[in-house]
Q: What sequence folds into this?
């Protein structure tokens, strides 16, 4: 009988566990979806709301990209973290979800710059800030909520589902955009169809809110509240008390900073490198990343679960160390494999097409050159030269205005395509090693009364600031390696020095100062 | 192990202090060479956002490590 009761109780626990994980993960996934569709549709949004000929609007576009990415997220972490430690996890991360969904939905409804002028970029900018604020509050809440439901020895496994949501959110965003674009056609999508992924968010959020409303509050928070042990001022307690501040610093410098740069390098820098340094064709490069992410995503759970057995630190530090050592060799292979100088051209297959069109007062000459190589790779170069038909007007234009626009597209052979997927997959594995166990680690090093506040800040500084700056700083490092304007960079891999340096410092600090025994700790 | 942690504390604190003049000097050099909007935005982000976080966290962390605050977080 006792055995029977125990079995029933275990079954109920498993069902409850699944519900907790599902409710938290789905909401977090939707928040990431909301955050990413803005970034993925940045070009269209820029055309609709931030015209380049208006300097204020252009400045707002830059601020919207950077401010929401790294300045606002830590503020959201502080604001909602504090709320979560004062009033509870459940209602706080419910609020962040509603704010995120509401902002995303509203972006989809804002009239364009042509209709309402400067109000359009100003409103979109404010809504983007709200998105960043909500994202800053969501992750810590979801991770804390799940971890506080999970038994000791299973926290890594349980919270690893939350860790998959950032990748799956990106996936969902790309998928919805591609489907809508395919269904409506490129022109209609650019005209108004881009609004659909934003508006769709309202439906996704409504479903998620409904699921989350039915969940109960974290048992550890309820217990603490009953005992009257909640913090009166979580911010002061987190960052003014030495014992907590020192853990915030170790979490940032020894874990999240390194994790942030490894995450951004594997998921975003790899795509940018394929498209800009290797000139790999747009659709093929997106497929390379998407397939690698899809294959790699289950490893978040593998490493989260493994960290329950062998400790969080060893896995996270191993991920950082292998990434530091492997980045340059991996990117060297990627670069060399796509480099046409290393290939033999089939000269007889070369084709050159020239089209001359007159559009109004301008003449547009388009030259398309296609080449084929013995390994199966093909190359397409499109050069568009636009200039006034009137020779006098043409002569009056400065030289840089007459410079033709060149687009290079390398379509890799099937073998190289699979090889690239493998090389990106290796980087995604590094991401899963550093990111899979980190939610459990962050939850474990802070006490329940200030957990939401304390873990959210280092996470969002590590990811938002250190990680979020990877594209900006890496691009800058590559530009700095150019011996002169318009000359190719002397080191196309120079952009990797930033993630290597940050991950290197984080690895040393984490290895020296972080304990590997947090997986066995009680979190109440 | 505790001794190594403390010695490294000096390294972190010095790194935190050293990064401030290094970044400012580089920013002034690059902006003076090419005072474009792009340069201004890049260095503003680095100086206003990234540098203070790195400097503050490394200095405070280094001082804590030097004082032995992390001595008790042992694995073995």
A:
């Amino acid at each position: 009988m006792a055995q029977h009761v125990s079995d029933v109780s275990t079954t109920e626990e498993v069902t409850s566990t699944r519900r907790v994980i599902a409710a938290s993960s789905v909401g977090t996934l939707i928040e990431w979806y909301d955050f990413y569709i803005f970034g993925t549709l940045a070009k269209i949004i820029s055309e609709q709301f931030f015209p380049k000929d208006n300097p204020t609007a252009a400045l707002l576009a830059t601020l919207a990209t950077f401010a929401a990415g790294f300045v606002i997220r830590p503020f959201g972490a502080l604001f909602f973290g504090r709320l979560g430690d004062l009033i509870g996890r459940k209602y706080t991360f419910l609020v962040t979800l509603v704010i995120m969904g509401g902002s995303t939905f509203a972006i989809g409804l804002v009239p364009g710059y042509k209709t309402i002028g400067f109000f359009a970029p100003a409103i979109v900018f404010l809504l983007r800030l709200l998105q960043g604020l909500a994202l800053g509050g969501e992750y810590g809440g979801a991770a804390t909520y799940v971890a506080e439901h999970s038994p000791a020895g299973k926290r890594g496994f349980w919270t690893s589902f939350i860790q998959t949501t950032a990748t799956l959110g990106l996936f969902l965003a790309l998928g919805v955009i591609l489907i809508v674009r395919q269904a409506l056609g490129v022109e209609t999508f650019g005209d108004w169809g881009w609004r659909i992924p934003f508006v769709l968010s309202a439906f996704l959020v409504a479903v998620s809110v409904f699921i989350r409303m039915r969940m109960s509050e974290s048992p550890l928070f309820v217990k603490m509240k009953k005992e009257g042990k909640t913090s009166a001022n979580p911010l002061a307690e987190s960052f003014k008390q030495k014992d907590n501040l020192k853990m915030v610093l170790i979490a940032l410098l020894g874990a999240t900073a390194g994790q942030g740069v490894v995450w951004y390098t594997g998921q975003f820098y790899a795509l940018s490198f394929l498209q800009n340094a290797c000139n790999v064709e747009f659709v093929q490069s997106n497929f390379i990343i998407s397939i690698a992410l899809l294959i790699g995503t289950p490893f978040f759970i593998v490493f989260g679960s493994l960290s329950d057995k062998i400790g969080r630190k060893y896995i996270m530090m191993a991920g950082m160390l292998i990434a530091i050592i492997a980045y340059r060799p991996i990117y060297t292979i990627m670069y060399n494999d796509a480099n046409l100088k290393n290939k033999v051209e089939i000269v007889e297959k070369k084709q050159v097409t020239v089209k001359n069109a007159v559009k109004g007062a301008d003449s547009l000459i388009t030259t398309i050159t296609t080449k084929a190589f013995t390994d199966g790779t093909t190359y397409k170069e499109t050069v568009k030269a636009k200039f006034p038909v009137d020779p006098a007007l043409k002569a009056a234009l400065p030289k840089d205005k007459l410079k033709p626009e060149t687009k290079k597209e390398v379509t890799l052979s099937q073998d190289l395509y699979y090889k690239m997927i493998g090389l990106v997959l290796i980087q995604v594995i590094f991401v899963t090693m550093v990111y899979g166990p980190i939610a459990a680690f962050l939850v474990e090093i802070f006490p329940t009364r200030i957990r939401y506040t304390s873990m959210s800040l280092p996470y969002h500084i590590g990811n938002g600031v250190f990680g979020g700056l990877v594209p900006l700083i890496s691009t800058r490092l590559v530009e700095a390696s150019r011996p002169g304007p318009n000359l190719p960079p002397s080191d196309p891999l120079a952009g990797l020095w930033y993630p290597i340096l940050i991950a290197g410092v984080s690895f040393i600090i984490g290895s020296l100062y972080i304990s590997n025994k947090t997986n066995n700790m009680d979190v109440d | 192990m505790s001794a190594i942690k403390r010695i490294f504390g000096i390294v972190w604190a010095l790194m935190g202090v050293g990064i401030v003049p290094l970044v400012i000097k580089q920013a002034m050099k690059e902006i003076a060479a090419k005072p474009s909007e792009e340069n201004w935005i890049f260095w503003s982000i680095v100086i206003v956002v990234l540098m203070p976080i790195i400097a503050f966290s490394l200095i405070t962390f280094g001082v804590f490590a030097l004082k032995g605050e992390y001595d008790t977080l042992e694995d073995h």
Observations:
- The first strand of chain A starts at residue 351 and ends at 359.
- Chain A is about 75% helix and 5% strand.
- The first helix of chain A runs from residue 2 to 40.
